[in-house]
Amino acid sequence: MPSVTVENYLKRILLLSAGNGGLVSMGALAEALAVVPGTVTTMVKALAADGLVVHAPRRGVRLTAAGRRLALGVLRRHRLVETFLVNVLKMDWGAVNAEAEQLEHAISDAVLDRLDALLGHPSVDPHGDPIPGRQGQLPSQVYATLATCGLARALRVVRVTDQSMEFLQFAEKHGLRPGAAVRVTDRHLASGLVTLRRPGGRPLTLSLVAAGRILVEPER
Amino acid sequence: MPSVTVENYLKRILLLSAGNGGLVSMGALAEALAVVPGTVTTMVKALAADGLVVHAPRRGVRLTAAGRRLALGVLRRHRLVETFLVNVLKMDWGAVNAEAEQLEHAISDAVLDRLDALLGHPSVDPHGDPIPGRQGQLPSQVYATLATCGLARALRVVRVTDQSMEFLQFAEKHGLRPGAAVRVTDRHLASGLVTLRRPGGRPLTLSLVAAGRILVEPER
DNA sequence: GAATACATTTTGACTAGTCAAAACAAACGG
DNA sequence: CCGTTTGTTTTGACTAGTCAAAATGTATTC
């Protein structure tokens, strides 16, 4: 049974490896885990010895099949718990991430299955993030973001890929939760600003970086 | 924030201190925690240094007010989680103890409050054990057991004070769950046997020890 | 009251995970 | 090409929790 620490490392590597060729730098991992870089090096070598990752010294780390399977399990627990906290316990959208961070390590498969059934086998969590299946299948779809989508198109928010409480509350406040209709009216690369409009709402300006964290799909 | 280990020690001390004058022996604690006695001595000294217990060397250990408050918190989490697992997730009566053992350390006050409300602020868990209140108030009532009650009286099971899966499954199988009607027809001290009868059920014989783990109150 | 039994405590050692700080490698700028 | 910057690895040390086994009290028995 992997320790809480191992589960956290694997989950982080999985989350950070989206984008690059699956290779995660020691620095990024240390940052995300709130740990000193040297610790990560030590720990990653231990994970590699257990066959959960491959470590390319001074280049980065990548999950093995076994490591990925474990990481997807943690992610599944995390996202199902989040869904439960929001849908059943009616907890605050922004606060559930921290709660799930704890519970994801304490929940057994038996409990998880019941929870999954109770929630109606959801495929995405309240932030719109996909929930891995029991065998680790991940409906990996490529979405545009508010930073990359076409202008003036009718769009729908599908996902918010930033778990920080400030960002989630900001998004919530302006109605940018999964399912919300939105339209980008202007994008100015030099100043790094994106302006959007929600039907019935005031125009909203945010940075390109923030816009890049909101995934969208064409309306209908 | 107390560690998982500290929480487990405190909870065990609380559970074992019922009966004796609150004084728990190192041996009993080691046994209950599945740890070697020397480890308990070391750990108890650390707990004492933190003001959570008082350690009377070679005599035993007792909770301080602070330790008791913490322990009751853990117990509250444990029993509310059990109630949730049985009442909402419809999990097996005998299996929930092990699950709750993990979850009790991962659940925050915020989540617990919602859970408590969802369950309708229950005062006992599925085994009939009382659930401590938010401020640690424990409805401490003295019950008779099947080993001590009067003969031929109409009784009702209120609580099963043995968390082992075998015992719980045995009790379940013979309808001895909280609320069940029962009557002791015979008790033979020499052989250590108790015979009972459930309305509409066959007579059942069990040992005095086992009978002592089933708390009852007079019918009506 | 001495001898024995039993529980408890002490001692030394080990594992998992972490940090601080020194040593190192690779890339980059001039 | 050489020096500097930047990220990575190594080293040594520390904490929490644990065990095995020896040492020590305390009780019990005769």
Outline:
With 220 residues, the first copy, chain A, is of the alpha+beta class. Chain A contains 8 helices and 8 strands, in the order αααββαααββαβββαβ. Among the domains of chain A are: 60 residues, Orthogonal Bundle (Arc Repressor Mutant, subunit A); 75 residues, SH3 type barrels (Roll).
CATH superfamily of the domain at 144-218 in chain A: Ferrous iron transport protein A (FeoA)
Shape of chain A: globular
Q: What is the CATH T-level topology of the domain at 144-218 in chain A?
A: SH3 type barrels
Most extensive contact:
A-B, 18 and 18 residues
Distance separating the two termini of chain A: 44 Å
Mean of residue pLDDT values of chain A: 89
Arrangement of strands in the largest sheet of chain A: 3-8-4-5-6-7
Rg from Cα of chain A: 19 Å
The profile of the biggest β sheet of chain A is: 6 strands, antiparallel
The CATH C-level name of the domain at 144-218 in chain A is Mainly Beta
CATH architecture classification of the domain at 144-218 in chain A: Roll
What are the low-pLDDT stretches of chain A, counting only 5+ consecutive residues below 50? none
What does this structure look like?
The structure is a homodimer of 220-residue chains. Helices cover 40% and strands 17% of the residues of chain A. Chain A is an alpha+beta fold. Among the domains of chain A are: 60 residues, Winged helix-like DNA-binding domain superfamily/Winged helix DNA-binding domain (Arc Repressor Mutant, subunit A, Orthogonal Bundle); 75 residues, Ferrous iron transport protein A (FeoA) (SH3 type barrels), CATH 2.30.30.90. A six-stranded antiparallel sheet of chain A has the order 3-8-4-5-6-7. In chain A, strands 1-2 form a two-stranded antiparallel ribbon. In chain A, helix 1 packs across helix 2. The radius of gyration of chain A is 19 Å and the shape is globular. At the A-B interface, helix 5 and helix 6 of A face helix 5 and helix 6 of B. The first copy, chain A, binds a DNA duplex (30 and 30 nucleotides) through helix 3.
